[in-house]
Amino acid sequence: MNESLGGNRAGYMIAQPRKRWNYRYEYIDETDKKKFEDIFELTYGSLNPIYFSDENGAYHFVRIMSPTLRVEEITYQLYNIDELILEEEL
Question: What predicted TM-score, i.e. pTM, was given to this entire model?
Fold first, then answer.
């Protein structure tokens, strides 16, 4: 993986499977929903991936890959949120 002076990343595909995490968060209140939206806005589509810690405490270099956060209002100011995280090639 190469990085330009402007911080843009370019690389090549390696024929190894990437890890994927599909998360569904249930009964999220309005405050936490806003936090999800803020993180998503800062990271989705960015050429600079982030570090992510999975359930086992292992760190992975990832990108947020859901085209949108799938937000479903289940009752007044309570939400379910679906998100896809995909491991980035190093």
Answer: 0.63
Pick from 8-12, 60-64, 73-77, 86-90 the range whose average pLDDT is largest. 73-77
The angle at the Cα of 53, spanning 38 to 15, to the nearest 5 degrees, equals 100
- How does pLDDT run across 9-34, given as a tens digit for each residue? 555 555 566 778 888 999 999 999 99
- Which DSSP state fits 41? H
Nearest to 54 by CA among 17, 22, 13: 22
**Cα–Cα distance for residue pair 68/40, rounded to 1 Å:** 8
- Paired with 85 in beta bridges are 21, 64
Tell me the domain boundaries of the chain.
20-87
